[in-house]
Amino acid sequence: MVSNQLKEFTENIFRLPEAEWQAFAAIWQPFSCRRKTMLTAPGETERYLYFVLEGLQRSYYIGENGEEATIVFTYPPSFSGVADSFLTQTPSLYFFETLTASNFLRTTYVQLDDLMNRYPAIQKMILKATAAALKGVLQRQIELQCFSAEEKFKTLLRRSPHVLQIIPHKYLASYLGIDPATFSKLLGTVRLS
Amino acid sequence: MKQFRSETLLEQLQSDVRRQMAIVERLRADDPGQLLAQPATGKWSVVQVLEHLNSYDGYYLPAIETSFSANKPARIYFSPGWLGHYFTQLMLPKENGQLKSRMKSPKNHRPSSHPDVVPVLSVFLQNQRRLLALLEEAKTKDLGVIRIPISLTKLVKLKLGDIFCFLIAHQQRHFLQIEHTLEALQGVRGKYPATPPVM
């Protein structure tokens, strides 16, 4: 029932012994939704951890003065959802939505927490996944604070060139914190070497 | 009558509510003058529309909460009642996104002539967070057996599932009105789409 995609993905993070893998595989349910489905809003505590099988999702923040920031995109194969709210079980500060029709596997905090209490190996796998995510977030923090628009643009395209094809450019601009017009200009002028 | 998977229906309604919250989050940054402006004499301002929605939540959210004390466990499928279905269909916009018909609001749901922007918007957002929690709790309840009296008259009771559908379709209708109001005031189209744009 649970896809090979999830198995392959978790094995790359940390290889679970067979019994632990069986326990972990058993907590996931298939879940599908249409494009532009809003899955979490600010003030709600994230109930689910998602694993993306198909589709594109984004998390974004809307500030008191209307400033909007795209925090993260997810696409297969990847965990998804409002990770910080899920792990801490505190209210989310931002929205989480699908940009295209999406297929997921999903599980609840209660189920995952129960497995982490019972199986140290599963706890270790989740810790490794969280650590990798933390590393990515801090790296991005540096880029947002220190890089020029052009450097941010180049870094993104070196790291994930395929996003240009799958993510609408207005959202990529919002992700980098640059103006959509600047983004189009960079797209026309910047050479990646 | 069409059947819905109860959980799928509730999650779709939650998504609609969250999308309406995102629109109001964006409105908070708008010029308060625009939000208070009536597009024509006798037409409501954006804040008046939201105050009108708050008055419905003021009746229905406590009514739903009270109904939850009934111990009626969830069923996998929900079928709307004929009257509930009729009310919901009456509220929902047409396929082309236009409103079906003009309606007059009942007296007790008419907004004040000079509402305050900040409290009206924050009460709306608070109500939606409460509504989301009720929709979540409703996953454990029987949407077809629990019944709630409508705000017009205690004599008519609708199924819990129909009340949710009607309440949120009613909001959807008024978010379309908000979009039209801002378009009329600002001469811009599509800045606050009540229905998601095609990507």
State the low-pLDDT regions of chain B, or none.
none
Read across the widest sheet of chain A, the strand sequence of neighbours is 1-8-3-6
Find the count of extended strands of chain B (DSSP E, 2+ residues). Answer: 4
Question: How far is the first residue's CA from the last residue's CA of chain A?
Answer: 44 Å
Question: Number of helix segments of chain A?
Answer: 9
Strand order of the largest sheet of chain B: 1-2
- Spatial shape of chain B: globular
Classification by helices and strands of chain A:
alpha+beta
Structural class determined from secondary elements of chain B: mainly alpha
* Most residues in contact, chain pair and counts: A-B, 24 and 22 residues
- Assembly category: heterodimer
Biggest β-sheet strands, sense, barrel of chain A: 4 strands, antiparallel
Mean pLDDT of chain A: 94
What order do the helices and strands of chain A follow? HHEEEEEEHEEHHHHHH
The total count of helices of chain B amounts to 6
Would you kindly provide a written description of the structure presented here, covering whatever features stand out?
- The complex is a heterodimer of chains A (193) and B (199).
- With 193 residues, chain A is of the alpha+beta class.
- Helix content of chain A is 49%, strand content 22%.
- Chain A is built from 9 helices and 8 strands.
- A 4-stranded antiparallel beta sheet of chain A has the order 1-8-3-6. Chain A has a 4-stranded antiparallel beta sheet with strand order 2-7-4-5.
- Chain A starts with a helix and ends with a helix.
- With 199 residues, chain B is mainly α.
- Chain B contains 6 helices and 4 strands, in the order E-H-H-H-E-H-H-E-E-H.
- Chain B has a two-stranded antiparallel ribbon with strand order 1-2.
- In chain B, a hairpin with a 7-residue loop joins strand 3 and strand 4.
- Classes of the chains: A alpha+beta (193), B mainly alpha (199).
- At the A-B interface, strand 2 of A face helix 1 and helix 5 of B.
